Amino acid sequence: MSVTIEELRSRHPCFALGAKNNNGRIHLPVSPGCNIGCRFCKRDINDTEERPGVSSEIITPDEALAAIEKATELMPEIQVAGVAGPGDTLATSYALETFRRIKERFPNIIKCMSTNGLMLSELAQEVIDAGIDSLTVTVNAVDPVILAQICEFIIWHGKSIEGVDAAKILIENQLEGIRKVSAGGVTVKVNTVLIPEINKDHVREVAKTVSACGASVYNIIPLIPQHKLSHCTEPSCELLYEVRKEAEEYIRVFRHCARCRADAVGLPGGKDISKQIYLREIKSENTFSHG
Ligand code: CLF
Ligand code: SF4
Predict the structure, then answer these.
(1) Ligand number nearest to the C-alpha of 135
(2) Dihedral (C-alpha) 211, 177, 127, 12: value to the nearest 10 degrees?
(3) Is any ligand 1 atom within 6 A of the Cβ of residue 268?
(4) Secondary structure (DSSP) of the chain
(5) Hey, what domains does the chain have and what are their CATH numbers?
(6) Mean pLDDT within 272-282
(7) With contact defined as beta carbons under 8 Å apart, do 259 and 191 qualify?
(8) What is the pLDDT of residues 137-168, one digit of tens each?
(9) What is the Cα–Cα distance from 85 to 41, expressed in whole angstroms?
(10) Could you tell me the end-to-end alpha-carbon distance of the chain, in angstroms, rounded to an integer?
């Protein structure tokens, strides 16, 4: 049984819908590869896929369990174990394997996973069976023409697809996946990266659509302009306030996002003990879209 949204609100730092609840999370960087190409993300997907030797940047499921043990001893406020990258959690099998083992070994830890959702519809039952309590899906647009400006390509069953065709497949799988896992009792949060030049007038539509599919919490993350979207601007506080207000007509909005790294350990936006837990800092770019 997944934990209820009420319990998440009091124990999970990313589901505190009013004031912060001062609980912590450990991110387990077990997921190396990705299967889509977001234009704001600097990871070189093909390099990653062709060189599985990049494992020095990630940890194994065994190391993940040891990391939880150590982190919860050092910092009892840590209530949540999350996998948020550095790649996509459903592009490889490591995240689900890690969660199945956490379920056995640490039954009280909240299991949180975040994904781009490309594989979510196909793997929905496995996500439910792994005992995921909270799942975040990053949905940057529900209109393929808008999404094609944000996501360059997808790797779909071994085939690279680009543009609007890719965006259509991604949106279909995200929404169908959200429907299936929410029906299976998993609490779903949706993240949208707010890109003023591309999706600021579309946030309302995303909030309305994902809410109708079963998502219960929404998080709007300001773009960090980089890579192929370095010409775009970082949203102002006023714009962020406005779009949150629009989204709130349809879904509850989370406001304390700290745009965490995939190896963060501690309180989001507060004390971080990742250097005491992980020997190497992972060499990934900012994974803010994955929270
Ligand atoms: Fe991590 Fe994300 Fe789970 Fe939180 S982060 S996988 S839901 S435990 Fe939280 Fe960090 Fe924002 Fe994410 S503050 S980037 S929303
Ligand atoms: Fe993949 Fe996440 Fe980067 Fe997008 S932001 S390309 S989903 S790793």
Answers:
(1) 1
(2) -20
(3) yes
(4) -PPPHHHHHHH-GGG--SS----EEEE---B---SEEETT----HHHHHH-GGGGGGS--HHHHHHHHHHHHHH-TTEEEEEE--BS-TTTSSHHHHHHHHHHHH-TTSEEEEEE-STTHHHHHHHHHHTT-SEEEEE---SSHHHHTTTEEEEEETTEEEEHHHHHHHHHHHHHHHHHHHHHTT-EEEEEEEE-HHHHTTTHHHHHHHHHHHT--EEEEEE----GGGTTS-PPPHHHHHHHHHHHTTTSEEE-------TT-EESTTS-B-HHHH-SS-------GGG-
(5) 5-277 (3.20.20.70)
(6) 79
(7) no
(8) 999 999 999 999 999 999 999 999 999 999 99
(9) 12
(10) 23
Cα 289 to averaged position of ligand 2 atoms, centre (Å): 7
Least confident range of 11-15, 185-189, 259-263: 259-263
CB 235 within 8 A of CB 189: no
**pLDDT on residue 285:** 53
Instruction: Provide the pLDDT for residue 58.
Output: 83
What atom in ligand 2 is closest to the CA of residue 85?
Answer: 8
Look at residue 286 and tell me whether its pLDDT is greater than 70. no
Q: Per the confidence metrics, is the pTM higher than 0.90?
A: yes
Compute the average pLDDT of residues 81-90. 92
How is residue 55 written in tokens? 């494992």
pLDDT of residue 21: 81
Give the Å distances, CA to CA, from 150 to 55, 123, 225. Answer: 28, 24, 12
Q: How high is the mean pLDDT of the chain?
A: 90
Query: In this structure, which residue's CA is closest to atom 11 in ligand 1?
Result: 257
